[in-house]
Amino acid sequence: MDGTVRCLARAGSTLYIGGEFAKVSGLARAGLGAVDLATGAVLPWDANPAPIPLYGPPTVSALATDGQQLWVAGNFGSIGGQPRQRLASLDLNTAVASPFRPDPDGEVRAIAVGEGGVFVGGSFRTIGGRSRSAL
């Protein structure tokens, strides 16, 4: 790891790590990676986050999973092969972004997944095209 880990999420035998880093065990993983819990080996799963222009390198500030999807929040303009700004849902097996695209207008710092949906908190004013101040 060549930077800081900010968040973790576990699904089965995989640990997803997010933060401010460019590499995990020497492999390019810009702010987001996956490792095998038994061996510690970096997995080929790579969502390849890309930065929002003028906001620095891609980083991940929050992760959550329900065992099917991985919700990711941070400073990125695309992830999982799709344009997704600051918040995305990724397939746990393929790292491809789902159609979920709320595009908050500010930072998301917390994610919780429950039976009623996905809940997020941060410093945004709108999300999903609706006025939702910080929550």
Walk me through the topology:
Elements lengths: L3 E8 L2 E7 L2 E2 L2 E2 L3 E5 L22 E7 L3 E7 L2 E2 L2 E2 L3 E5 L16 E7 L2 E6 L3 E2 L2 E2 L4
Describe this structure in words.
The protein has 135 residues and is mainly β. Helix content is 0%, strand content 47%. The protein has no helices and 14 strands. The strands form six sheets. Strands 1-2-5 form a three-stranded antiparallel β-sheet, with no helix packed on it. A three-stranded antiparallel β-sheet has the order 6-7-10, with no helix packed on it. It is globular, with a radius of gyration of 14 Å. The mean pLDDT is 95.
- Overall strand count: 14
Mean of pLDDT: 95
CA-CA gap between termini = 32 Å
Task: Specify the biggest β-sheet.
Answer: 3 strands, antiparallel
Q: Which shape, going by the Cα principal axes?
A: globular
Helix and strand content put the structural class at mainly beta
How much of the residues is beta strand, in percent? over 45%
Short description:
This protein has 135 residues and is an all-beta fold.
Keywords:
mainly beta, 47% strand
